[in-house]
Amino acid sequence: MSVTQPRLPLVPAGRAGLLTRLGYRYARRRYGAVPDPFAVAAHHPRLLTANAVHEWMVEKASRVLPVNVRQIAVYRVAVRLGCSWCVDFGTMLQKNQGLDIERLKHIDEYATSPHFSAQERLALAYADAMTTTPVTVTSEQVAELEREFGPDGVVELTYQIALENGRSRLNSALGITEQGFTSGEACRVPSP
């Protein structure tokens, strides 16, 4: 259960269609609970299904970047946009992938912090430039990322950052806040 209630109620399994209930069951097994964004999106089952398929495909396709680089860039967007749900869920994902989550406390000092690698600093600066309004990405920045990660890596990083911008803004607009994935209060998320 959320710390605060979203602006739209969560759709309980008893009111959900068959496909949504199956999705809920899968989510409970994978994450320990049904993610609130999923339960709010269930008001529009077709968009929920489209989003679930999209997220699954993006997860399967995102294999070029090192996982730590991809995850820290996505996390940075959530922090910059103030999406407490995304920060909570992103921390849990990093923990379950064996990444150091203690360093997340130093995310705002990434440019000088010894907790982040050179690759991570590049990705974090790019996440900042893409998340700022208006976008402040430069050609030099993209060229440096291309030298480090290749063109496919730049596309993957750009896509992941843009996707997290959308997720964070959607969750914030709908009032979806942290759910307890990292505190263990709401969910008992198993480590892999």
UniProtKB/TrEMBL annotation:
It comes from the Bacteria. InterPro entries: AhpD-like (IPR029032), CMD-like (IPR003779). Gene3D superfamilies: AhpD-like (1.20.1290.10). It holds the Pfam family CMD. This is Carboxymuconolactone decarboxylase family protein. Residues 62-128 form the Carboxymuconolactone decarboxylase-like domain.
